[in-house]
């Protein structure tokens, strides 16, 4: 079983092996990554965290769990420009620095093992967590509580003041959605660090993990353009054209398609 197959197999388990799946994604980029070794390390971390948790009902332990992880050094990677290691789970476990999504996946794994109720929230720009039924969200980078006003402020910082907070922004994320978001993050990080082949691996995984967006086809088309694969680029541009309803985008896509070399067709 190759790393991609192992990653997808983690989604078929009950419960889903989310953190292990993230480790197999890292193994796709580095054959020296051994998920089993990282999972052994996680048992040690679980014991270290659990001994420091206060004597409270389980549904009140999510924030102390996040604060304990923060105290142990698991914090948001602030290095700029951000590097792919911020989204590779094996590196996050080693460095104790990562993107909010990776810190959230770590917290979710520990919470599951300790029977602490916790779920991921697919908030745009900054992945968040929530105790089911709570009136607030939790920042995986330290455990700060976020109420609706805080969420609006966070959204405005990420995207400007004109994007309103909606119920869609506060929906719980499925494991597959989290892995797809992780793959999109890695695609962007590898691309911005001039590693188009690694970004292509992530782009293909995005397509495999669930419903795709226009931007997913456009991102992969750009990678194929950089790699001088015009027919593959054409395939993705044509699919983006089928998906978009934006007339300006449709015009730009048609122009870009017109600039590609003609497709070679064989008659049999």
TrEMBL record:
Residues 39-183 form the Protein SirB1 N-terminal domain. It comes from the Bacteria. It holds the Pfam family TPR_9. Belongs to the UPF0162 family. This is Tetratricopeptide repeat protein.
